[in-house]
Write the structure tokens for this entry.
Amino acid sequence: MIRELRPDDWPAVRAIYDEGIRGGDATFETEPPSWERWDAAHPELRLVAERDGSVVGWSALSPASSRRCYRGVGEVSVYVAAEARGAGVGRALLHELVECSEQAGYWTLTAGVFPENQASIRLHKTCGFREVGVRRGIGEAGGVWRDVVWLERRSTLVGT
């Protein structure tokens, strides 16, 4: 079941985020932020996937810019708990996030993914994203400069 994220979901969302951080191929972050910081960075369009009453994944949209001309451009995040991977949870979350984003007036969604995270790249492409480039050595993590594959999805309903 996909539903809107509530503040009381934060402990489960944080644990899934932390699991992704520890995996090494999900984000440059080294630890999950506080609820207040995460909440401020993701002011709308936040979803969780529940299975048997437990949160097993989340997706959220962050504004790409505070400039008005980019009001319809957002960056997506999708994280799935290890025990729920490969069961379609990520696809369901991202599909629903895409639908909700179009209803909210977003015309472009972006995602930055480490090239080693082939499962995430496949997931985004399955949901209509296309690869637009690779940012070489864009950030440092654990003493290693990492590339990021940049993907985007252009709405066929909004901003055409």
About this structure: Residues 56 and 85 are 9 Å apart (CA to CA).
